[in-house]
């Protein structure tokens, strides 16, 4: 929206200037018409302003009134249209629900039969509804909306109606061909869609996702959404950024997308999203894919951005259904909703995993525990939080910080078995300790989704997992892979697979560029960030592996160096955007001075360099913000620096 | 004075403000302005508009993307004295399109309607240059 504003501000004066020019032209022609009989320019000019002042005024008033009148008319017309449209949609929704309920009553025990009858029942109300061309769009538009009310209604309804309402979109025609097919509806896919649309005018892009939601961003699911004061946050999924600006986790509202049936005919193309559909088979030779409902879609260019599925602990999988019911593998919106609900009702939650997701959730839940008395436990095999990322001294410091957020941290914990007893979970650790809890959140990694590798004949990487692609993110001639599922060749840092938000954006954007004819390799290094509560956060770039030798340069922190202050300055909650949002108008409210926080430990703020063969391959900016471009430059150069303290000077860590 | 500590393979240095006052002796590789791999700002080195610039957000890719591109290109290449004054048609089309999607393109109030058209045009031209500068040379 900020970007909108900047551009709008630039354009608004033009619109204004254009209208004044317009008016001037009108006046001039009016004047000239009046003067055609006489033809002595000098005389006219001298009498012009004085003698014809009255006419000038009349013209201005007329033009002004006409503008105001037409704008008001247009406004009311649009409002009326919107109201009529809404009423129509409600009518159709109730009609299809009624018909599906009737069917469900008769064929409840056979879900397949229900679906079959649904596909027959729905085409009837649809042609009934009206012959006008507008009709196909309301049912299609409602396809995205019933997915949400269907989910909410699910607990109270029998199993038959929810698949019934979900299958109403299934019966709508899936396009048989699309120039650009994006498999997966996450961050990388959306970034690619945007990139394709920007570069190929009028491009038609189809996103196919097995989730019921439109593309959304994941970082707030483990951070900002938990800090929201709004009790309906699980429904609205809006979060307030530190500077008070609110935004939705959805990248764009539904009106951004077009319906998949309109894709082929839309004059300027667009992005269509097919939710609740899974691609199960890929025919590379025939350039087509098959969905789980047996429909086929052919494509010209395809992107695989299927992300991954959270890993589970074997001990939990073996522990049986009772335990599985009380375990959450956290990744999607529905997991957030579930965990939010659990956190309000349970007395104790245990998070297994000490990485980014585990620590962030622990801090988020820890904050909640202050009000509700919820017990939050976090356990992991490493010595401290972020043990695989931060050097030991920093990991220990971080663990203390997490403990201060209200979390009971159990480090060096290996889970031996989990049992369900008296409706509570008992976690037996290998060293004999026993932890009793109500619910488990497993944050032990992501398994990249490579289901299509076999049918498509795509290579899977054995070291990092994921589809193996080259530096241009290409797997085979018309197939690219981006995001969590891509194991790509990074020219600077070597082959790797990155599971961060900004990487999904960068790789998605790059894949989109390459799908539209560019041949650019992965070059702009993506970054990542993490916040451990509002007081401590860091941004990082490159290979940040605690097994590498590190050099940390620190200064003392003041209250100004917190993630809160950083986002207040840049006006965004998503830190990777703070670089590009630089161009937007600065929305800063003055930060009221807070007494400096006393740190008894030394690692207030600083820079940590990760070295591989004496070359800096990774950098963490610890409580130091808005300096990512310098860090990116240092990694890009790939030079050997004799004294890293000198390099650290480039970051001005003592400044704001 | 800076202090140095070694914990196994990790080196820890503490520095005061004075320690870091002297300019850095670290050498950075010179940037190649024509590097084809680099991410570009709003205006490409050859003078064209980079529609994929993150700074544009969804403007060029949304439902009004085509209209936006037409209007903005016209403005960019406009050689008129009041830049963009020959692009009224395109801007009108864009405005019409955007009014159909109020959710995506929230309509701003024209608070600064006091400014003369000349001032605003100059400012918008200067803004465009500043935008370009900020994006191509990110501040440190």
Keywords:
heterodimer, A: 656 residues, alpha/beta, FAD/NAD(P)-binding domain, Enolase-like, domain 1, 8-stranded mixed β-sheet, 40% helix, globular, B: 140 residues, mainly alpha, Helix Hairpins, two-stranded antiparallel ribbon, 3 helices, 32% helix, acetylation (chain A)
Could you describe the largest sheet of chain B, including whether it forms a barrel?
A: 2 strands, antiparallel
Structural class by SSE content of chain A: alpha/beta
Model regions low in confidence, pLDDT < 50 over at least 5 residues of chain A = 34-51, 102-171, 582-600
Indicate the low-confidence ranges of chain B by residue numbers: 109-140
Structural class of chain B: mainly alpha
Strand line-up of the largest beta sheet of chain B: 1-2
CATH class of the domain at 177-215 and 252-307 and 449-516 in chain A: Alpha Beta
Mean pLDDT of chain A: 80
Q: Roughly how many Å is the radius of gyration of chain A?
A: 29 Å
Radius of gyration of chain B: 23 Å
Q: Which fold name is given in CATH as the topology of the domain at 177-215 and 252-307 and 449-516 in chain A?
A: FAD/NAD(P)-binding domain
Q: Tally the helices of chain A: what do you get?
A: 20
Number of strands of chain B: 2
Organism (chain B): Acanthochromis polyacanthus
Region (Disordered) (chain B): 1-42, 102-140
Protein name (chain B): Coiled-coil-helix-coiled-coil-helix domain containing 4b
GO molecular function (chain B): protein-disulfide reductase activity
Structural description of this entry:
The complex is a heterodimer of chains A (about 650) and B (about 140). Chain A is built from 20 helices and 28 strands. By secondary structure, chain A is of the alpha/beta class. Among the domains of chain A are: about 175-215 and about 250-305 and about 450-515, FAD/NAD(P)-binding domain; about 310-445, FAD/NAD(P)-binding domain, CATH 3.50.50.60; about 525-650, Enolase-like, domain 1. In chain A, strands 1, 2, 5, 6, 7, 8, 20 and 21 form an eight-stranded mixed beta sheet that branches. In chain A, strand 22 and strand 23 form a beta hairpin. In chain A, helix 3 (about 55-105) crosses helix 7 (about 160-170) and helix 4 (about 110-120) packs across helix 7 (about 160-170). The longest helix of chain A is centred in the N-terminal third of the chain and has 54 residues, at about 55-105. Chain A is globular. In chain A, about 45% of the residues are buried. Mean pLDDT of chain A is about 80; it is low at about 35-50, about 100-170 and about 580-600. With about 140 residues, chain B is mainly alpha-helical. Chain B has a domain at about 65-105: Helix Hairpins (Orthogonal Bundle). In chain B, about 30% of the residues lie in helices and about 5% in strands. Chain B is built from three helices and two strands, in the order ββααα. Chain B has a two-stranded antiparallel sheet with strand order 1-2. In chain B, a hairpin with a 2-residue loop joins strand 1 and strand 2 (about 10-15). In chain B, helix 1 packs antiparallel against helix 2 (about 90-100). Chain B starts with a strand and ends with a helix. Classes of the chains: A alpha/beta (about 650), B mainly alpha (about 140). Chains A and B meet through helix 1, helix 8, helix 16, strand 26 and helix 18 of A and strand 2, helix 1, helix 2 and helix 3 of B. Strand 26 of chain A pairs parallel with strand 2 of chain B.
């Amino acid at each position: 929206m900020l970007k909108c504003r900047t551009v709008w501000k630039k354009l608004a004066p033009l619109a204004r200037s254009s209208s004044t020019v317009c008016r001037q032209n009108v006046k001039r022609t009016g004047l000239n018409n009046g003067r055609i009989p006489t033809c002595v320019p000098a005389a006219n000019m001298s009498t012009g302003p004085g003698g014809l002042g009255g006419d000038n005024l009349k013209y201005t008033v007329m033009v002004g009134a006409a503008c105001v009148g037409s704008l008001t008319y247009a406004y009311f017309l649009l409002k009326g249209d919107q109201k009529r449209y809404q009423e129509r949609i409600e009518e159709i929704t109730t009609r299809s629900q009624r018909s599906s309920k009737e069917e469900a009553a008769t064929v409840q025990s056979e879900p397949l039969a229900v679906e079959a009858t649904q596909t027959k029942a729905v085409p009837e109300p649809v042609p009934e509804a009206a012959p006008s061309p507008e009709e196909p769009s309301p049912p299609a538009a409602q396809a995205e909306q019933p997915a949400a009310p269907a989910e909410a209604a699910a607990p109270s309804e029998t199993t038959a109606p929810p698949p019934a309402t979900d299958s109403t979109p299934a019966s709508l025609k899936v396009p048989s061909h699309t120039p650009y097919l994006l498999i997966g509806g996450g961050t990388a896919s959306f970034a690619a869609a945007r990139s394709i649309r920007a570069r190929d005018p009028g491009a038609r892009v189809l996103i196919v996702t097995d989730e019921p939601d439109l593309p959304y961003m994941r970082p707030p699911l483990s951070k900002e959404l938990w800090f929201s004061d709004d009790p309906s946050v699980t429904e609205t999924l809006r979060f307030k950024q530190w500077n008070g600006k609110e935004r939705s986790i959805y990248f764009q509202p539904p009106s951004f997308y077009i319906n998949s049936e309109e894709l082929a005919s839309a004059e300027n193309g667009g992005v269509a999203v097919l939710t609740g559909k899974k691609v199960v088979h890929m025919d590379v030779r025939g350039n087509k894919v098959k969905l789980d409902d047996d429909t086929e879609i052919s494509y010209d260019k395809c992107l695989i951005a299927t992300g991954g599925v959270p890993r589970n602990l074997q001990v939990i999988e073996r522990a049986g259904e009772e335990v599985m019911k009380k375990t959450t593998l956290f990744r999607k919106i529905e997991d957030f909703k579930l965990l939010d609900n659990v956190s309000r009702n349970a007395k104790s939650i245990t998070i297994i995993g000490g990485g980014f997701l585990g620590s962030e959730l622990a801090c988020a839940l820890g904050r909640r525990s202050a009000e509700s008395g919820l017990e939050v436990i976090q356990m992991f095999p490493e010595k401290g939080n972020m043990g695989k990322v931060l050097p030991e001294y920093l990991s220990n410091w971080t663990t203390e910080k997490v403990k201060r957020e209200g979390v009971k941290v159990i480090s060096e914990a290996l889970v031996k078995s989990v049992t369900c007893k008296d409706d509570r979970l008992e976690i037996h650790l290998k060293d004999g300790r026993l932890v009793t809890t109500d619910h488990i959140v497993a944050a032990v990694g992501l398994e990249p989704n490579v289901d299509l590798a076999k049918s498509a004949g795509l290579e899977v990487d054995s070291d990092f997992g994921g589809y193996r692609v080259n530096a241009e993110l290409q797997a085979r001639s018309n197939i690219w892979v981006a995001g969590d599922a891509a194991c790509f060749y990074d020219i600077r840092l070597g082959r790797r697979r990155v599971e961060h938000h900004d990487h999904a954006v960068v790789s998605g954007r790059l894949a989109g560029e390459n799908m539209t004819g560019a041949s650019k390799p992965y070059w702009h290094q993506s970054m990542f960030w993490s916040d451990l509560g509002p007081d401590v956060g860091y941004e990082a770039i490159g290979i940040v592996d605690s097994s590498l030798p590190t050099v940390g340069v620190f200064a003392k922190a003041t209250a100004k160096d917190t993630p809160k202050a950083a986002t207040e300055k840049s006006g965004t909650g998503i830190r990777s955007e703070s670089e590009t949002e630089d161009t937007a108008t600065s929305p800063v409210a003055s930060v009221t001075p807070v007494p400096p926080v006393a740190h008894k430990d030394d690692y207030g703020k600083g820079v940590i360099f990760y070295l591989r063969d004496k070359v800096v391959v990774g950098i963490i900016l610890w409580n130091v913000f808005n300096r990512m471009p310098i860090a990116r430059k240092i990694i890009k150069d790939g030079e050997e620096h004799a004294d890293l303290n000198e390099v650290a000077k480039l970051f001005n860590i003592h400044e704001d | 004075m800076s202090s140095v500590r070694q914990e196994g393979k990790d080196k820890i240095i503490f520095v005061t403000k004075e320690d870091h006052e002297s300019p850095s002796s670290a050498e950075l590789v010179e940037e190649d302005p024509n590097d084809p791999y680099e991410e570009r700002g709003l205006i490409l080195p050859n003078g064209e508009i980079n529609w994929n610039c993150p700074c544009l957000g969804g403007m060029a890719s949304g439902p009004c993307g085509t209209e936006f591109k037409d209007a903005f290109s016209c403005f960019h290449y406009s050689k008129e004295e009041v830049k963009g004054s020959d692009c009224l048609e395109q801007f009108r089309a864009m405005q019409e399109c955007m009014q159909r999607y109020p959710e995506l393109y929230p309509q701003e109030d024209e608070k600064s309607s006091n400014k003369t058209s000349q001032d605003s045009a100059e400012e918008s031209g200067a803004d465009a240059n500043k935008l370009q500068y900020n994006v191509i040379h990110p501040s440190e």
